[in-house]
Structures are given as C-alpha cells and as structure tokens.
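Submission sheet (multi-component)
Chains listed below:
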Amino acid sequence: MAYALQQLINGISLGMIYGLIAVGYTMVYGIIGMINFAHGDIFMVGAFISLIAILMLISGGMMEGPAAILLVLVISMAFTALYGWTVERVAYRPLRGSFRLAPLISAIGMSIVLQNFVQVSQGARVKPLEPQITGGVELMREGNFVVQLSYMQILIIVSTLAVLAIFTWLVTQTALGRAMRACEQDRKMAALLGINTDRTISLAFVIGAALASVAGTLYLLRYGIADFFMGFIVGVKAFTAAVLGGIGSLPGAVLGGLLIGLIETFWSAYFSVQYKDVAAFGILVLALVFLPTGLLGRQEVEKV
Amino acid sequence: MTPSGLAARVRSALVDAGKAALVAFGLFILMVGLRTDVAPAGELFLRTRWAEVGMLCALVFGLRLATALWVRPRLSEGNTQRSAALLSQAGLMFGPALLAVALILPFVPGIGRYELDLGILVLTYIMLGWGLNIVVGLAGLLDLGYVAFYAVGAYSYALLAQFFGLSFWICLPLAGILAAFWGVLLGFPVLRLRGDYLAIVTLAFGEIIRIVLLNWVELTGGPNGISGIPRPTFFGLPFSMGGGPGSFAHFFGIEPSPSHRVIFLYYLILGLALLTNWVAVRIRRQPIGRAWEALREDEVACRALGIDITNTKLTAFALGAMFAGFAGAFFATRQAFISPESFTFIESAIILAIVVLGGLGSQVGIAVAAIVMIGGFELFRDLDEYRMLVFGGAMVAIMVLRPRGLVGSRAPSVVLGGRKRIDASLVGEGRG
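Outcome: structure written.
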C-alpha cells in the first residue's frame, strides 16, 4: 500500500513533465497539423540551457533558494523559446501549404541538426549534475518503508501547475489565445478576418518551446543528467501522451502525460524496468485501436 | 535597376542579415559560448569560447547577406518550371544509364574494395527505399518503423543460421516471409488508423522491436548482438581464402582473392534491389497495385467502389516488410555481426527521407536520392562529428528548396489516350 502510494507520487511527478512537453506537440498539431518532430530535442536544449545557467549560478555562489530556481527557469525559457522560434522560421515556415510529408521530413532533419549541434557544442558525454534540491516531507511509514514526497517532487508539481495555469489563462483569456484558437479551427478564415496567422503560429512554437524548457529544467533537476540524445525517447513518449489524450486537446495532453507517467512508473515498479517503454508504447497501440481519437479528442467528421 | 533601388536593396539586406546575426547570437551565446565539461573529479565546470560565438554570428551574417543579395534574386527569375521539365526528360534516359553503370561497376578500373563496399551500402538503401515506397509512395501509409522489418529479417537469418545451421539461400526467403508475417501482425491493429496516428504507432512498433531485441539477452545476445553469422556461399561454394577443394576459387580454377566475396555480395544486393524494383513496377499495374494507389488518393471512394480495404492495406504492409526482410538477411550475412544498434529510429528516418526526397513513387528518384544521401554522407567522412549535422541540415535544405523531391513528376499508372507525365502536386498525399 505504502509502496503503491510512493509509486503514485513518482508517477504523477514524471507524468507532469511529459504533460508539459505534450502540450507543445498538441498545440502545434492543432494549429498546423504537423508532428513537430524536433520538439523532443527542444526539450533537450532546454535541459542544457538550464544546466549552463545552474553552473553559472553555482560558480557565482548564488545557487540557493527558490529565487535561483526561478531565475534558471526564466533563463531557460527565454533562450529555448528562441530555439523554438528559429526552428519554425527556418524549417517549417517555408513549407507551409506544401504537401503533408514535407514538413515531417524537414522536422526529422531539424531533430538531427539539434541533436548533433548539441553533441558538437557541448560534447557527447553524459553530464552528471549533483542534486540541487534534497530532502522531503515524510507522508507515511509502513514498517521500514517510508513514503516520501520530496521537495523536488513538490517543485515539479507546483511549477507545472503554475505554468499550466498561466498557459490556460493565455489561451482562454487573451487576444493571442483567441487568435490561436481561431487558427486551430480554420486558418484561412482566421487570416481573412485579419489575424496574422504567421505570427500566431510563431508564438505557438515559442510558447511550446518555453513549456518544453520548463520540463527540461525539471527533468534535469530531478534525474541529474543531461545528454544530447535524451530528447528522443522523452519526446516520443510525450507525443504518445498527446495522442493518448486526444491530439489537439490541451487538457488531453496533460491527462495523457499523467497516464503515461503513471503507467511507466507502475510498470517499472511491479514488472520490469527494461520493458517500461514497451509498456508505454503498448498502451498507446491499445488505446488507439479502441479509442482512435484519444481520450478527449474530437471525433473527426469526414466530409465526402 | 536604378542606383537608389540598389542602395535600398543593399540596405534592407544588411538589416535582414543584422537581425539574423542577432538571433544567432542569442542561439549560440550559451550553447556554444559556455561549454560544460566534466572535471577529473567528476564535477561539471564551464569553459568559455566567446571567439567561436563571434565567428558563428559573423558566418550567419555573411550567409544571410549573400542569400539576400545574390541567391534569392536568381531564384525568383523563374526558370524552375523549365528546369524541372528538363530534369524529368533526362530522367527517362537516366534510369537505364544508372543501371548500366551499376552492372559494370566492379570491373571499372580504379574501383577498389572501399568503393564496392560503399556501392553495397548504397544499394542496400536503394532496396529499402524501394520497399518502403510500396507502403508510403503507393499505398500512402506513413510508416515510421520500417527498420523493424529490416531487423526482423536480419535476426531471422542470424538466429536460423546459429540454431539450425540453415544456409543463407534457405534463410533468405524465410527471412522475407517472417518479416512479411510481422508486417501483417502490425497491419491488423492499425487498419483503422490514419495519417499521423499511423505514423506514431509504427514508430512505437519499431521501438518495441528494438527494445525487445536489446533485452531478450538469452535469444538475441542483447546489446552484444550476434556475431559469427555465416558468410554467404556461391550456391554452396564458400569464398575461403585457402582456396582448398570445394571453394569458389578452386572450382573455377582462379587465384583466391578477398575481392571475390565483395563482388559477389555486390551483385547479390544488386539482384535483390532489382527484384524489388521489378516487383514494385509490375505490381503497380496489377489490380492490387491500382487498389493501393486508389487507396492513397481516397479511402472513402475506394470503399464505395467495393475495394477490400483490409486486404489492400495488409498486402502493402506485408510486401513492403518482405523486402525489408530480404535486405535484413543480406545485411546480416554481409556484416557477419548484428546488434540492436543498427536498427534505431534514425535508420527508419533515413529510409523515409530517401523515399520522400526521391519524390514519392518515383523509382529512379529514390535511387538518386539514396546515392546522394548515403554517398554524400560518406563523402563528408572527414568531418567526423559534424557529419550528422551536415546531413540533417541537408535534409532540411532539400525539403525547403524542393518539397516534392528530386523527381517531381511521375507517369500515371492508368491513362486514357496518350501517355503523359503529371506533376506530383496533383497526386494524393497519402493520408493513410
């Protein structure tokens, strides 16, 4: 029981990281209908930028307290957002209105570029970061087993909820959010009504990249490692989460992320760690066979 | 052009390049300017490299300025249509010429072992490209996990040879059949899925196969792979170096040489690739091939016309997978060693990129794309770690410049009246 509770906590905190990345996938997919294959690598870039920021703060002796973490998050979000913007500008915008596979290939190329750019500029070795946030709250004790909610997990849950709250406000309450939703429904009509669709799409990429960078920072702090290839498998799982939740649906992305995180954690805890990715992908296949539009996705109406 | 017009153009180009350099500064200041290194004691420290940041920004500024002033005006002069037509004209002769070169390549003076090995590699990718083209180009089913079938073929041969001592020539069809079986197995659950859902499920399937190969240590050797896979024989005559009785060299009464095996492997993969091409080209004219193309254009109309969607999709998956299985068995016998590392997602992505860059559905285009991508990749061997960077950049650049691939038009399979070529932008996109 206590063991299961601990796994529940671990699963939720991992799932929130997946959810943050999945939001970026689902937002871009909703607006321009493409899989942004480079999004997982944007997450990786975010992790690296926050690693550099943390090391700068450590060498300045300022890596203490919540203010430092907040500063790292802000630096990482700003610079990673620039990467998101550039990727869209260089690789996707020239292909707008082109046939469907062209942006996908371009995105795969961009993913290779980002991975190898980081490999060249930061080295191929795995970067180990010492734990920056230690300790936690003891929730329950059962025999020798202590259920612990670590401060790191609290940070993950609190910052994810905060970021998602800001994001929800942005999408539902502001003019930008209205423009984004309009583009999602009908891009041509939105353009006719005077919405600058190129700018809106750019901003969707910027916001998606910023969310992915938060995920990258949290992932780095939680697991203490960063390497140039980390974006691939996390990206695929986050995309799985987006599909599971119903692609195009923002709450669905978070829900899907939580589910993937929980499935993965419980599978590793009770069955085998080696096959945890198989479990996540297996669930995806099953979910799509029985729920082809995901959990919260809109039923696609096919016009003939 | 008036002097003032020129001045305005230069000024706007300068401003544009300045903005690009500013963005580059933002991108590179942290990621290039500060490098994280692991100290001997194990902790991380930062090393500054401001000079490189400056150089990169200057490079971006220069490139952007050059494109704005020289390249773009030329592109907009608008002879792309004519050059595309010329290219497709040349394409009709180009295919046979390419085949002739491929046939005599091992006997061309100056072609050594290295060039032949490269030729074998390129032909393997051409074969995989043609196989995937059946699934993506003809049937319009976007498959991101094609390498899984390649892996099934390779491991089928390796395991059958290891545990049952079967020869390559018996295993080759078996590997194809097993891969086709896995193709059908994957095909069943994804029959209802379309487009990107299909893409992500095939990707997941590819990863599942790789993870199982990696972790099922008793059977597959896990990350260590399988080594000592038997080399192919010339219909039972081994290519042994000793040249003893029963060997290839002894049978034909020639001097034993290591190049015999390479030349044999070269012709083997050439034959397999041509078989793939022949089957794909022939089957396009069969009812099933026409059903694939109809399916790619409009699934609903297909159903309304009574085409069996299930069979059509499953045969496309099975046939595409079968050729990947053949290629996999060939790969295993050539390398004599396989491990899950050879079957990562990047391989699927490269094969798909070859198919799309070649122009979906064009056989010659795929061959050219494979030569350009794999040959170009080898050409930049000296660049070491920058090689993949250039490779990915080239993928983006080719897509941006020629989104319809190298051969942007194709001959329709069914025509009324005279034969004509149609532009690829009129062809359906394969929503899966």
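Remark: Chain A has one domain: 2-290.
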